[in-house]
Structures are given as structure tokens and as C-alpha cells.
Amino acid sequence: MTQTAPDILRIAVAQLNPTVGDVAGNLAKAREARADAARQGADLVLYTELFLAGYPPEDLVLKPAFLKACEKAAQDIAKDTADGGPGVIIGTPLKRKSGTHNSIVFADGGKIIAERYKLDLPNYGEFDEKRVFQAGPELQGPVNFRGVRLGIPICEDIWGDIAVCETLAESGAEILLVPNGSPYYRAKIDVRHQVVIRQVIETGLPMIYANQLGGQDELIFDGASFAIGADKTLAFQMSQFEDAVAVTTWKRSRVAAGAQNANNSDHWVCSEGPMSKIPEREEADYRACMLGLRDYVNKNGFKNVVLGLSGGIDSAICAALAVDALGEERLRTVMMPYRYTSKDSLKDAEDCARALGCRYDIVPIFEPVEGFRHALTQLFEGTQEGITEENLQSRARGTILMAISNKFGSMVVTTGNKSEMSVGYATLYGDMNGGFNPIKDLYKMQVYTLSRWRNSHVPPGALGPSGEVIPKNIIDKAPSAELRENQTDQDSLPPYPVLDDILECLVENEMSVDDIVARGHDRATVNRVEHLLYIAEYKRRQAAPGVKITRKNFGRDRRYPITNRFRDRG
């Protein structure tokens, strides 16, 4: 019997937050989403890339037991479709004779009706899929789902130049459905839209882009799933940083005889779907940091967190992020004053904790620091005091925070910004101690911008209070580590607007010293910053992971050797 092609297809996009390695938990999420989609009348549910495994699974893919568990979960959800409800397209790793593949399983009617394998494996920036996967052996055509031919490229298959989408269109695909694991960086949504529009122009087909949600170590998946219609306009837009199951309605539009259409005699139009507003830049960055901290803490099983609240801007914004992400009852802040801690800092830290409603303790460090100094007196005899003695303060504070972590099971939130991490303005085994850093990829001036933004906004999903949560004095005063009398950061660093611009040129844009000088910067300053950037690499290798916000964060994106004598002298 010939199957009659439908004129309406309801496709649910499951924008969910899986956990890498939690195959049973991810399967449960998938089943819950399918039930939700069924209640909304969906015919098909599109999940994101490698959903059952969690993305990116990295070397877990090398474990046969993990691959076996993922395939079993795929078979289980395929059996669920015997109930006559929605079919499913779900991502999973699959080991086949041709290798281990980043794959999707397409199931309907209680069985797997097709498998498709990713062809273009990314191997740049945060991706290293060629390490663990093999590319699909050949491009397979569209899948016939209840009379509609669906093309299913997987993530990078639409970003590269191997013409996956064009081939699917030539093979008779009517709609392109793309499962993705596309991490956040600033303005990434615009980049995704342009990639999809390019494919729509080349194929003449509408494309649905389903993107993962949630924090995975340093990566933040922001969701923001969407579709571009064959007319190159936005067909629907799902929310950013929020999980959702959205059912979209697609209708077949018959094309009159003689009308121009490169691929089909008719085409599909989205008649119903969400049209969510995408946050502006500051809100997006703040919510990315908040989501990354929340998921890192919760997915790794920490009940609460602790951080050193110094009265400075970095620890203040980290405290605000912790309260917004986890709630005031899950944050303990600790002020650890020494002889150089100003009265302003003591007041500012207390005011910040009070505004956030979190616990605030004071643990003076005079005795432990003096104890270290006394123990080292004979060894250091005849030397001048300097950075070594200053760092004893930072390391005493780091030891106290780690002791609290050990005693109460609280994860230490470390608070260094990208400007400081770039030039090594941080103390190993001191203020660098910690399990996770929500502002690791924010330059100092961006920290100020987000602090001002948070004082006048409460982001969706935040558990913290409204109003001024970061006291104005913290934002207005000159930043200082307060490790010696009357110290400010600018004693040893260029002004932060200058430093941040030079660093962005060096790190994000890989610009030459000559080109940076041409922007108006002093050559000696640029050379010094470049030198500090290189020699601090060994510190960054030992730093806690943190949220990726920019196009090039330290760690996954920027991989420089520790031992490195290169300097750009023009």
C-alpha cells in the first residue's frame, strides 16, 4: 500500500540538559520529553547531538561498556515508539564495523528505522572528535518518516564545506533536521543563524536547528534552538539558557505548476512555533556564568559552596553568581583580614554578604601568616621582604578555604578574572585554590560591566534578590590585592582598559605586536604584557576550570606550550 504523504507535520524540539555519562538519567529525560511532546500532539521529537551519552563525552567513547549502555538506551526508547506516539531522532555513539560514530538513531513504530552517522568531525577549538570517533563511511540519503523525506545532517555537517546538505536536497529531502551540541560564546547565535541561512540558500529547504542546553565542565550549551524557513526568514526561535520542549507545526505548501523550486514541487512552511526574545549581551554573559556554575556544582554532587569575600569586585560578582545559581543558603562567604585589609574592604564585604543574604564569617589570618614568617625566619635571613611574604597571605587564605571545604564538603569557588589569569596576577595554592571559576573567561572591565548590569537586573531563573547586590563602593574603588600598604593593581599592571585591549588582541585575535602598537599602545607595554602572558602559562595549567564566554578561552581553545621562548619582536 502506498503511504499518503501528510500535509501537516508536528515536530517537537527537545532542548534539554543532559549529563555526560548519566545514560539512564538522560534516557529518563528523553522519555519525559517524548511524553510531553505526545500530549502536545507531536508526530516526531528531535533531540540534540549525542543526547543519550551527554556531549561532549570525550574519552568515555573509548570504553566499550559506555558504548554498550548508550546503544541499549537507544534501543529502549525505540521500543517506546510502539505505542503509536511520536517518532524520535536521538543522538548516541554507535560502534559499527566502519568504526565508532557520532550518530543518530531514528525510531518509529517500535523499531529503529534508520541510523545516520556524522561525516564532518570537528577538530578545532573546544572540539577533538577525531580523537574518539570515525567519520561516517558514506553520506546516506533522507529518511522516509510517515511519508515525509527528512534529511538529518549532524552539527558540523552543516558548518563545513563537504556539501552534506546539498546532497540530501538532491536526494529528495523535504526538511533538514539538525541535532547540535554548539557551545556558547558571545554573539554565537548570530553565527549559527548565518550558517543555517547559507545552507537554506544552497538547498532551498527549511532547516530546524536543535541545540543542547546546560553546563559541561567549561562549556556552556545555551539552547536557543531555531529554524530558518525556505524563504530565509526565522521560522521559530526557542529561548536561550532555558530547557523546553517546543512543538512546531509544519504545513506543506503546494507550488503551482511552472513555479520555480530547485528541489521539490512543493515545500514546507512553519505555521506555529515559539518566537522567544534572545537576551542582550550582558544578560547572556551573566546567565552563561550562572548556568555554568549551577550545573558544575549540581552535576558533580556538591551541596554548597564557599568563597573568600575580600571586599573586591571579583569576589563580589562571584558571590552574586553563586546566590543566583544556587540560592543564598548554599553559599558561605569568608572574610580573612590581615594587617593590610582596609576598613572599607571589611565594610564592603559585609555589606555585599548582607545584600545577598548569604552566610558571612570572619577568620583573621594574622596568626597563621606570622607563624609561617616565624618558621621561615632563619631560612630567609639576609633577604629582603617582597612578593614571597605577600604570597604567604594569599596561601594562608587558600589553606583556610580548603580546610572549610574538607570539613563541610563545600566546593571552593575561585574568583580570578581573565585579565589576572592572563598575566599571572594570581598566587598558586593561594587565591587560585578552588574547584570552579565562574568568571575565568571575563576580562576585568567585563566584570565591572556585568556587576553594574546585575545591580539593576535580576536574570530569569536567578535565586538571588533584586536591587544593589554589589555595593557601589566595590565598583567605584581602585582594585587592590591588599597584600601591602596602599597597594593597587595599577602599581604593577597597566590600567585595566589598556591591559584588556592588549590581551584581547593577543589572546582572542592572535595579533602581532606591531599591529597592536598601531592601535595606539606603547610598544614596551605590549612587549611586557606578551611576556607576562607567556610565562604565566604554567599557572593556568594548574587553575580551576571555568565558564567559557569568549571565542578563545584558556584551556580548551588556547593551547600554548609552557616551555616557550618565542617573543614577537617584529
UniProtKB/TrEMBL annotation:
Residue ranges of the TM segments: none
Classification via SUPFAM superfamilies: Adenine nucleotide alpha hydrolases-like (SSF52402), Carbon-nitrogen hydrolase (SSF56317)
Residues covered by the CN hydrolase domain: 9-252
UniProt-annotated binding residues for L-glutamine: 124, 182, 188
InterPro entries assigned: C-N_Hydrolase (IPR003010), C-N_Hydrolase_sf (IPR036526), Gln-dep_NAD_synthase (IPR014445), NAD/GMP_synthase (IPR022310), NAD_synthase (IPR003694), Rossmann-like_a/b/a_fold (IPR014729)
Keywords: ATP-binding, Ligase, NAD, Nucleotide-binding
GO molecular function terms noted in the UniProt entry: NAD+ synthase (glutamine-hydrolyzing) activity
Sites where the protein binds ATP: 308-315, 415
Pathway assigned in UniProt: Cofactor biosynthesis; NAD(+) biosynthesis; NAD(+) from deamido-NAD(+) (L-Gln route): step 1/1
Catalysed conversion reaction: deamido-NAD(+) + L-glutamine + ATP + H2O = L-glutamate + AMP + diphosphate + NAD(+) + H(+)
Family matches, as Pfam families: CN_hydrolase, NAD_synthase
Highest taxon in the source lineage: Bacteria
Alphabetized HAMAP family for the sequence: NadE_glutamine_dep
Its job: Catalyzes the ATP-dependent amidation of deamido-NAD to form NAD. Uses L-glutamine as a nitrogen source.
Protein's name according to its UniProt entry: Glutamine-dependent NAD(+) synthetase
Organism lineage string: Bacteria, Pseudomonadati, Pseudomonadota, Alphaproteobacteria, Hyphomicrobiales
